[in-house]
Amino acid sequence: MTSKTALITGATAGFGKATAERFAKEGFNLIITGRRKERLEELAQTLKNKYNTESVCLGFDVRDRDQVRANLETLSAEWRKIDVLVNNAGLALGLNALQDGDYRDWDQMIDTNVKGLLYVSEMVMPWMIANKKGHIINVGSIAGTEVYPGGNIYCASKHAVNAISKAMRIDLLKHGIKVTQVRPGLAETEFSMVRFKGDAEKADNVYKGYEPMHADDIAEVIFYVSSTPTHLNINDIELTPNAQANSYTVFKQ
Ligand code: NDP
Ligand code: 8X3
Fold first, then answer.
1. Rounded to whole angstroms, how far apart are CA atoms 55 and 214?
2. Are strands 84-87 and 187-188 parallel, antiparallel or unpaired?
3. Is residue 212 predicted with pLDDT exceeding 80?
4. Using the 8-state DSSP alphabet, how is residue 100 labeled?
5. What are the structural domain ranges in the chain?
6. Quick one: which atom of ligand 2 is closest to the CA of 158?
7. What integer pLDDT is reported at residue 238 of this predicted model?
8. pLDDT (tens digit, 9 = 90+) per residue, 73-96?
9. Which residues contact 112 (CB under 8 A, 6 or more apart)?
10. What's the alpha-carbon Rg for the chain, to the nearest Å?
11. I need a surface site. Which of 16, 78, 89, 121 has the fewest CB within 10 A?
12. Is 224 an active-site residue?
């Protein structure tokens, strides 16, 4: 294997899927992960046909540390030379006030967005250290630096991603490993269908009256931050649709 390798979590939909395609277009080999393995295999076949991409598909739940370890341990020495890790798998569940919230949603958001990111990074960081290079790109959110009504625990989980990204940058500095946090605002993916548990009307409403960002927009930015010269790092980047000023100010027509 001569080309570079990117590991992208949450590649079955949205940003992760679009990012996989963006890196494939640049000739990267891919390790793509998510729970819905059939979607990963379909994506791998599409990218093989379009760009001759070599992919490894790993179907696992990032919340389960044993599954994360068992799956990543199947990678050969060559595949462990990961140039870019995109910690993207994540979700929001519900938009209730905290006092009306469901602890099972809180658990799932914290376990996926925070602990899942740590479990994957825990495996990949030593490989990058041994390889003396690498770039970890954490997908946070504007919800990681602001709090909006009903955002409570989702915002808390993304605030944790913000802190973890800063901590990773400090701790990995001496190993020359870059850490970037990408913090998007409103982008139309499966995100709102997941948040509203399949209520299509509520999900569609989030994106009405303005043009939200699209998964390809975020993929473009993720690829861009990964492609700066060795001496230069983009630490943190926030992106919103033109119609969005912050988490709670959106201009709708
Ligand atoms: P999607 O719902 O379209 O995609 C989410 C991805 O995460 C899927 O591939 C899903 O795979 C994966 N995922 C979720 N839970 C798990 C799990 N337990 N184990 C493994 N994989 C999991 O959403 P987006 O693409 O929009 O979201 C991607 C990231 O971007 C998330 O971290 C989200 O918080 C963040 N974000 C999204 C914004 C938006 O407006 N859309 C804005 C800012 C940040 P599968 O279900 O197959 O496991
Ligand atoms: C996802 C987008 O608007 O919920 O992070 O912050 S939003």
1. 24
2. unpaired
3. yes
4. G
5. 5-242
6. 5
7. 98
8. 999 999 999 999 999 999 999 999
9. 62, 63, 89, 90, 91, 157
10. 17
11. 78
12. no
